[in-house]
Amino acid sequence: KEMSDKDGWSALFWNNHDQPRALNRFVDIQNFRKEGATMLAASIHLSRGTPYIYMGEEIGMIDPDYDSMADYVDVESLNAYQMLLEEGKSQQEAFQIIQAKSRDNSRIPMQWDTSENAGFSTGTPWLKVGKSYKDINVENEIKGLIFTFYQDL
User: Fold this and answer.
1) Which residues constitute the domain of residue 54?
2) What distance in Å separates the CA atoms of residue 123 and residue 125, rounded to the nearest whole number?
3) Model confidence over 99-124: pLDDT tens digits?
């Protein structure tokens, strides 16, 4: 409020490379992924300030849903996992916390299509692509509700 009262201008964003994706944090993605993605988009694009879109947000990309700690590379996540175990959490409990909060969730390769590595690279990417890449990718979503909503905004 103080910023806008003094003609300030905010940077508006939901996602960046240091946090899990907003869709996973705020939306029931099993039932409302598309509706949630458009709601999040509208909330920043219709507010005062400059909206920023993080890669994949415009197609409704979600966290990768990795199966094991071996899939994570972020040193903060690996250290947090060890600390959680030392605090008495079971391996499963610690893994579920990392799965929900890891920075790697937003650092996965862009999901371009259904080909190997989601069309991101013919080489080995720094992180595995997300499990959803066969369904949620640019090729599938380019004419879809979320992407066209972003275009309309």
Assistant:
1) 2-152
2) 6
3) 999 999 999 999 999 999 999 999 99
